[in-house]
Amino acid sequence: MLGVVGILLTKVLTSIAILNVHKWYDAGKSEYFSSSLILFVIVFILFHCVEIRRWQEIKNPGNVNQDPIFKSYILPPDEV
User: Fold this and answer.
1) 42 part of a folded domain
2) What's the domain count of the chain?
3) DSSP 3-state assignment of 66?
4) What does the DSSP 8-state code read for residue 4?
5) What residues form the membrane-spanning segments (predicted)?
6) Is residue 16 part of a domain?
7) CA 8, CA 32: separation in Å to the nearest integer?
8) Cβ 57 vs Cβ 80: under 8 Å
């Protein structure tokens, strides 16, 4: 329902000349700085890292309370 509101709101705002955006069905035609395969691989790797950390927390609670890069940042217990 929120997607429909976004589509209709941008259509109305474009028709009364407040916004100048593309039609929602033309959004996939945009050219990006890289191919869609490269972007997919980058997103896959980033999500993989996040989900592995989440899985480690489920497997061993309190395991990810410390930042992996900046070791001085530690969360209090029961905060994750």
Assistant:
1) yes
2) 1
3) strand
4) H
5) 33-50
6) no
7) 25
8) yes
